[in-house]
Amino acid sequence: MARYLDNGTLDPEFGCGGKVTTNLGGESENYDVALDTALDAMGRIVVVGEANPESSDTGRDFAVARYLDSGMRITAFKQNTEGASIQDWLMTLAGPEPKSGRTVEGGCITWAVTQPGAYTVTEEDQAGWTHQGAASADFTVISDGGPYNHTFFNFQDVTLTACKQNTEGAAIKDWLMTLAGPDPKSGQTLENGCITWTVTKPGVYTVTEEDRVGWTHQGAASADFTVVSGGGPYSHTFVNFKDVTLTACKQNTAGAAIKDWLMTLVGPDPKSGRTLENGCITWTVTKPGACTVTEHYRAGWTPQGATWADFTVVSGGGPYSHTFANRPPTLWLPLIMR
């Protein structure tokens, strides 16, 4: 049954968005058929037709229903957490006049009851959906009371995945990930470098990867998501570089270490410094890519080969090293003639 306003739109004050579905005692309202309508002397809607109640001997009994403006109607609404209506959700009414049915377009179902008393509306459990509150609502129905209604909210579960890999794209197992938000979780990445959580509540979430000694984040260590019902799938991949060492050494042509020789590293993680007592300087490199070590020119010394060395640095690679050899200045003694 639908009721329209004078402007041709459905009357929102009547039933579920202007519509009322009434089960006249059969296994389903689909067995009930309205054949005609009229208004009684008090302006109330009267519907006549056929019904198929469980007690029927014929399977097609005459039926009359009158809709009261004063209430005695119970409406159950179904929405997701974003307020969108959900159709075809089973609702069950327990009480003196039990009924059941599924929400229609508009996400609701309205029952007209004729007996007062305590009633309970219960929504079905549906796989992949999580109740956001109680799954039932109680009403105390009195004569000419109401209308009575309740809105049930559900969240359609989503997945959120955090993955971990190095700068060469290799998956990293056993890396701790933490999910903060309305439905907090944590866990370690699996063989494929990922962990996937089922999230059952909407809202703002943040995934944070652990800090680990010897590894350097290649970007932010956290990622934010705004999770909505039925959204996603949500995912983020964190990339880390396993730090490596790169050593530049300096010696003379006899193999003796040379201290305090300036070396420069050019590349994604540039550095410079002077060799120590052992003739070497070692840097910790935290980014991948092509690097070049260059020794600085010193007057009087002659390079025994190139004054630079190139490296292609990868996560967890190396250790990388190169030794530069130089011939020391020649000592010239004066020749004295007699």
Can you describe this structure in just a few lines?
It is built from no helices and 27 strands. The chain has strands at 33-39, 45-51, 61-67, 73-80, 90-94, 99-102, 108-112, 117-123, 129-131, 136-141, 148-156, 158-166, 176-180, 185-188, 194-199, 203-209, 215-217, 222-227, 234-242, 244-252, 262-266, 271-274, 280-285, 289-295, 302-303, 308-313, 320-327. The radius of gyration is 39 Å and the shape is rod-shaped.
Overview of this structure, please?
- With 338 residues, the chain is mainly β.
- The protein has three domains: 29-154, Immunoglobulin-like, CATH 2.60.40.10; 158-242, Immunoglobulins (Immunoglobulin-like, Sandwich); 244-327, Immunoglobulin-like, CATH 2.60.40.10.
- 0% of the residues lie in helices and 49% in strands.
- The protein is built from no helices and 27 strands.
- The chain has strands spanning 33-39, 45-51, 61-67, 73-80, 90-94, 99-102, 108-112, 117-123, 129-131, 136-141, 148-156, 158-166, 176-180, 185-188, 194-199, 203-209, 215-217, 222-227, 234-242, 244-252, 262-266, 271-274, 280-285, 289-295, 302-303, 308-313, 320-327.
- The strands form seven sheets. Strands 7-4-11-9 form a four-stranded mixed β-sheet, with no helix packed on it.
- It starts with 32 loop residues before the first strand and ends in an 11-residue tail after the last strand.
- The relative contact order is 0.10.
- The model has no long low-confidence stretch (mean pLDDT 89).
